[in-house]
Amino acid sequence: MKKKSNNHSNTICLNKKAGFDYFLQERFEAGLVLKGWEVKSLRAGRVQLRDTYVLLKNGEVWLLGAVITPLPTASTHIQPDPQRTRKLLLHRQELNKLIGAVERKGQALIPTAMYWKQGRAKLEIALAKGKKEYDKRETEKDRDWQREKERLFKK
């Protein structure tokens, strides 16, 4: 039997701004509780993770601010809410670690990527600490220097 070749990437979307605004530390993989129309929209790539965050409430983890735009072919008997709060699924050990880090250390939980894994949508969240303005300038300066270095080595 031949294996199916996957020429497409498993990545649905990335939150590129997260690395610029935060120092990303430990990363976790969480499952998402989605509705049928949301899965179809994810397959079409109609999702945005910019300005999203993760909230811990009553021992559960919730994704806020993610926009999943419904397809125009969504069913007529439902009213899709593109920015609804979605529940995240984590193991109890991971959840306890996150609760401790957020409450004691004052860190934030930021979604960094959404991807497919064995046919299921997964969200990568990272423990993050906010960057100050001078940190952002330093990051930009380092990135520009790396780009310039690559140009010099090419010649």
Shape: globular
Give the biggest beta sheet: 7 strands, antiparallel
- The helix/strand series, from N terminus to C terminus, equals EHEHEEEEEHEEH
Domains (count):
1
CATH class, please? Mainly Beta
Number of beta strands: 9
In CATH, the architecture is Beta Barrel
* Weakly predicted, low-confidence segments: 1-5
State the share of residues found in helices, binned by percent: 25-40%
- Please indicate the percent range of residues in DSSP E strands (runs of 2 or more): 25-35%
Named CATH topology: Small Protein B, Chain: A
Question: What Rg is obtained from the alpha carbons, in whole angstroms?
Answer: 18 Å
Terminal-residue CA separation: 48 Å
The helix tally amounts to 4
Structural class: alpha+beta
CATH superfamily membership, which one?
Small protein B
Q: Please, could you describe this protein's structure?
A:
With 155 residues, the chain is of the alpha+beta class. It has a single domain (11-154), classed as Small Protein B, Chain: A, CATH 2.40.280. The protein contains four helices and nine strands; from the N terminus they run βαβαβββββαββα. The chain has helices spanning 16-21, 36-43, 92-105, 133-154; strands at 11-14, 22-32, 47-48, 53-57, 60-64, 67-68, 86-89, 108-117, 120-130. Strands 1-8-9-2-7-5-4 form a seven-stranded antiparallel β-sheet. Strands 3-6 form a two-stranded antiparallel ribbon. It is globular, with a radius of gyration of 18 Å. The termini are far apart. This is SsrA-binding protein. GO terms for molecular function: RNA binding. Residues 130-155 are annotated as: Disordered. Keywords: Cytoplasm, RNA-binding. One of its GO terms (cellular component) is cytosol.
